[in-house]
């Protein structure tokens, strides 16, 4: 996917002297290079050569695969005026681009954010900023928070897995949390366009790789911690420690932590910033000590949403609602209300706005309504074992007939979860269509076989278990197998606009494919 950086820079570019960068931040001219001239001016920062624009500082970081300094010549050819790198990078820049202006710093990945914030004049100070981390629920919670912030700000920005949105303008997002220079440039653009608040998802990769460096959030939130991304973080302890970085004093002024799981309780105990705690499971022991607690929840059997009652720190009870089905969304909504309140939105306005929030692409999204021979069809992003359990439990009560799941598991990612996903689906759904998610470089059949091993361990006769070698075929098969009493839930890819197969990103979206399959089936039924 093309990076949106070029399209999302502020219209009024900043202009600051390289000499002032050396004066203000912990960087210095590399020995033996061109002397810094006082008229050398920067108007942008980039970390990827393809995203470099004239006037940029190219920050060349040592990558996990390759050193960014290898691409300095490319960045300079695109108009970069200087390169910031580490000691190892200096030699590489000199080899590829002799004569370049080279600055050097010790940890350039960590410097990228502060440098970009410096260049843009610390744009975050003009906005209320909210960051949300946790394994599941980040996207949903950020959209809920954004809905609440819009109750008091005419224009807002929301950044995350689904899109990068400022006011009504949005582009596809290259990842959950953009690189630090892109984030700072988006903050500057949001401020320039008069946005009063910005909410962003903060992934654990972002925290480990300094993508939110240079930004001190007004409020940050934690949803939960579940098994995911162990290929990157090593173990749960490492994953937790990376998440906890968001709650460091330099990174956020205050926090709101869901304490339903032990990781949340530990985070609330250990962090050094003021935090409010939220317990979202009715009558759970942690509710007694939590600042905020969901004390009643009525999970709507119409599958549209839930009403709940939130007890505040003063003991007062507040009516609130989640516009999406399932108890997990009560949890996300409760967190969002408290986060928005901490970010300056009156409590009842926050609760009302969250209850009315619009549908979120690929999050329990109702794509086909039940009726006329068609089952209710939802597209959901559940791609971890815990999320899958919760998603299936959320749709069971709204399913008069059979619960059908179309699902797979990612290639080149945590292999251990594949049989677990199969076991869960076999336990909690009636009909299974096992297919591909993003096989990446792996043989899709191998990934499916691992899932099917898990299915077999729970359902040895493999009754009502189907395998489809393409996701579009799986969706068509599911529609063919069902009537309007049933529910189909398609999990794993949510809003994603592409499917990655053997290194190639093919345009693919579950919602679009489902609607096309429905139209075709309607033709067959007519
Ligand atoms: C594992 C991981 O996060 N890797 C990130 C890491 O990659 P890397 O260190 O391997 O980078 P590299 O390929 O060695 O390249 C080194 C440097 O050279 C630059 N380069 C490279 C090639 C080139 O032609 N020109 C160029 O300038 C790169 O931009 C980079 O700055 O640093 C790169 C730039 O800083 C990131 O783009 C890259 O994210 C990759 C694309 C990625 O897929 N990340 C995923 C796992 C991720 O971040 N996911 C989380 C969400 C997870 C979730 O909750 O689901 C996210 O926030 O999206
Ligand atoms: N609070 C929650 N606890 C557990 N599972 C949840 C929660 N909220 C949502 N989910 C499930 O996780 C899926 C992903 O939700 P969402 O996109 O909001 O999370 P996310 O943290 O943004 O995920 P990712 O970082 O992978 O994009 C949903 O489709 C739903 O099935």
From TrEMBL:
Cofactor(s) named in the record: Mg(2+)
Main location: cytoplasm
Localisation per UniProt entry: Cytoplasm
Residues with PTM N6-carboxylysine: 243
GO biological process: cell division; cell wall organization; peptidoglycan biosynthetic process; regulation of cell shape
SUPFAM superfamilies: MurD-like peptide ligases, catalytic domain, MurD-like peptide ligases, peptide-binding domain, MurE/MurF N-terminal domain
One cellular component term from this protein's GO annotations in UniProt: cytoplasm
UniProt pathway: Cell wall biogenesis; peptidoglycan biosynthesis
Gene3D superfamilies: Mur ligase, C-terminal domain, Mur-like, catalytic domain, MurE/MurF, N-terminal domain
All residue ranges annotated as the Mur ligase N-terminal catalytic domain in the record: 43-98
Pfam name, any one: Mur_ligase_M
Known EC number: 6.3.2.-
An annotated Gene Ontology molecular function: ATP binding
Positions bound to UDP-N-acetyl-alpha-D-muramoyl-L-alanyl-D-glutamate: 49, 176-177, 203, 211
Amino acids binding ATP: 134-140
Keyword Cell wall biogenesis/degradation listed: yes
Keywords: ATP-binding, Cell cycle, Cell division, Cell shape, Cell wall biogenesis/degradation, Cytoplasm, Ligase, Magnesium, Nucleotide-binding, Peptidoglycan synthesis
Entry keyword annotation includes Cytoplasm: yes
PTM summary: Carboxylation is probably crucial for Mg(2+) binding and, consequently, for the gamma-phosphate positioning of ATP.
InterPro entries: Mur-like_cat_sf, Mur_ligase_C, Mur_ligase_C_dom_sf, Mur_ligase_cen, Mur_ligase_N, MurE/MurF_N, UDP-N-AcMur-Glu-dNH2Pim_ligase
Mur ligase C-terminal domain segment(s): 362-494
HAMAP family: MurE (MF_00208)
Described purpose of this protein according to its UniProt entry: Catalyzes the addition of an amino acid to the nucleotide precursor UDP-N-acetylmuramoyl-L-alanyl-D-glutamate (UMAG) in the biosynthesis of bacterial cell-wall peptidoglycan.
PANTHER family from the UniProt entry: MUR LIGASE FAMILY MEMBER, UDP-N-ACETYLMURAMOYL-L-ALANYL-D-GLUTAMATE--2,6-DIAMINOPIMELATE LIGASE MURE HOMOLOG, CHLOROPLASTIC
Family listed: Belongs to the MurCDEF family. MurE subfamily.
Protein name: UDP-N-acetylmuramyl-tripeptide synthetase
Originating organism: Cellulomonas oligotrophica
Gene assigned in the entry: murE
């Amino acid at each position: 996917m093309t990076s949106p950086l070029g399209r999302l820079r502020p219209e009024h570019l900043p202009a600051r002297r390289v000499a002032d960068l050396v004066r203000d931040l912990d960087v210095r001219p590399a020995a033996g290079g061109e002397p810094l001239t006082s008229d050398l001016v920067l108007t942008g920062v980039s970390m990827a050569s393809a995203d470099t624009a004239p006037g940029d500082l190219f920050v060349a970081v040592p990558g996990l695969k390759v050193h960014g300094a290898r691409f300095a010549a490319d960045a300079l050819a695109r108009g970069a005026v200087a390169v910031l790198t580490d000691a190892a990078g200096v030699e590489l820049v000199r080899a590829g681009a002799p004569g370049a202006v080279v600055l050097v710093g010790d940890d350039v990945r960590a410097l990228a954010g502060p440098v970009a914030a410096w260049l843009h004049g610390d744009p975050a100070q003009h906005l209320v900023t909210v960051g949300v981390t946790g394994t599941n629920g980040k996207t949903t919670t950020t959209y809920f928070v954004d809905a609440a912030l819009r109750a008091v700000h005419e224009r807002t920005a929301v950044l995350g897995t689904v899109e990068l949105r400022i006011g009504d303008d949005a582009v596809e997002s290259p990842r959950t949390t953009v690189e630090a220079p892109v984030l700072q440039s988006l903050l500057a653009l949001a401020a320039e366009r008069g946005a009063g608040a910005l909410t962003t998802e903060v992934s654990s990769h972002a925290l480990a790789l300094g993508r939110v460096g240079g930004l001190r959030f007004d409020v940050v939130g934690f949803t939960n911690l579940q098994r995911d991304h162990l290929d990157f973080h090593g173990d749960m302890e490492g994953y937790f420690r990376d998440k906890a970085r968001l709650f460091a004093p330099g990174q956020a002024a205050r926090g709101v932590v869901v304490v339903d799981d032990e990781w949340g309780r530990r985070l609330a105990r250990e962090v050094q910033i003021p935090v409010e705690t939220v317990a979202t499971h009715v009558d759970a022991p942690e509710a007694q000590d939590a600042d905020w607690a969901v004390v009643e929840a009525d999970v709507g059997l119409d599958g549209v949403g839930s009403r709940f009652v939130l007890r505040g720190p003063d003991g007062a009870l507040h009516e609130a609602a989640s516009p999406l089905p399932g108890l997990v969304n009560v949890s996300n909504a409760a967190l969002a209300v408290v986060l928005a309140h901490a970010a300056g939105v009156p409590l009842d306005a926050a609760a009302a706005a969250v209850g009315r929030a619009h549908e979120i692409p690929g999050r329990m999204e109702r794509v086909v309504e039940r009726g006329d021979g068609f089952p209710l069809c939802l597209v959901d992003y559940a791609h971890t074992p815990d999320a899958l359990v919760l998603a299936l439990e959320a749709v069971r009560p709204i399913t008069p007939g059979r619960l059908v799941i179309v699902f797979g598991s990612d290639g080149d990612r945590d292999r251990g979860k594949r049989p677990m996903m199969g076991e869960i689906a076999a336990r909690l759904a009636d009909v299974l269509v096992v297919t591909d998610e993003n096989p990446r470089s792996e043989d899709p059949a191998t990934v499916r076989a691992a899932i099917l091993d898990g299915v077999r361990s729970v359902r040895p006769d493999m009754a009502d278990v189907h395998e489809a070698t393409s996701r579009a075929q799986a969706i068509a098969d599911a529609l063919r197998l069902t009537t309007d009493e049933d529910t189909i839930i398609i999990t794993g890819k949510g809003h994603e606009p592409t499917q990655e197969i053997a290194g190639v990103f093919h345009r693919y979206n579950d919602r679009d494919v489902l609607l096309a399959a429905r139209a075709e089936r309607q033709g067959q039924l007519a």
